[in-house]
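Standup notes
- DV: blocked on the single-chain target, sequence here:
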Amino acid sequence: MPSIADFESMLAAGRDNALLRFSLGNEYLKAGNAGKAAEHLRRAVEHDPKYSAAWKLLGKALTDTESWEDALAAYRQGIAVAEARGDKQAAKEMGVFARRIMKQLGLESGD
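- DV (later): unblocked, structure below
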């Protein structure tokens, strides 16, 4: 299983793409570094704006850093992407997370 160092060396070698950034983000999140994870996940969705799994993980990383508005925006974008792709399960999961954040922020679901 590749490590953060392995992924970072691939990135340093110029192999920058959505999957590599997603993998780095995922590993940083597992290591407890949500801020660094969010950086890589933002790059993943820049590479591939239709990457619903990256939007979902970005929302989680931003939630972990308590960047509530950014996390909500990531989940909303991810829901739109997932629905457009017919990925109902991912859209549903992100909807649950988005509603939790809206509740935390004191927003009604109609806002």
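- Follow-up: The mean pLDDT is 95.
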